[in-house]
Amino acid sequence: MTTSVLLVGVGGQGTILASDVLAKVAAGTGLDVKLSEVHGMSQRGGSVETSVRFGDEVASPMADAGAVDVLIAFELLEAARWAHHVAPGGRVFASVRRIPPLSVLIGSDPYPEGLEIELEERGATLIDADELACEAGSPKSANIVLLGAASQALSFDEGIWRKVISTRVPPHTVKANIRAFELGREAGAPRGEC
Fold first, then answer.
1. What gap in Å lies between CA 12 and CA 186, rounded to an integer?
2. Which listed CATH number (3.40.920.10, 3.10.580.10, 3.30.565.10, 3.50.50.60) goes with 2-188?
3. Do strands 125-127 and 2-10 pair parallel, antiparallel, or not at all (unpaired)?
4. What are phi and psi of 114, to 5 degrees?
5. What is the pLDDT of residues 8-50, one digit of tens each?
6. What is the DSSP string of 23-62?
């Protein structure tokens, strides 16, 4: 069986680092891993999408629309744009952060309203990842908060997550990033559980 995870956001949010951590976690358990990145205008705040697929044998780095097991969205509008890629029974973990696209910034389009309600109706877990990152002591660790949340839907041991995160973030931020992961796990726990 192959598990498909789609990570989406905008440039500068750490989407690529998060996908690299996930790929290394999966590979560290002996699974075959395929990774695909689409940067777009990522350096200018444009959309970024990364697909990580893992299993005993993975043929393709990309999942078909409607076949994604876990969607990790670093920005609210990106979560709404990609939610239709999630398979029935799949999970969505989305930051409530809003980063207006260029069309909104220049005034040609409004930022869509009601996205939180739309996503919650799809069963998404909405997380204030920026707030939790600050609580952890590293405002730039919102990506790790979201990985922590999504780890609730993935079957990897917490120890391997901590090990990989410790090797992928700057040494002086390891403690804060591990705390960000832990806070994300708490936020991503199924409702009614800790």
1. 25
2. 3.40.920.10
3. unpaired
4. 80, 15
5. 998 778 889 999 999 999 999 999 999 997 655 545 567 889 9
6. HHHHHHTT-EEEEEEE-TTGGGT-EEEEEEEEESS---S-
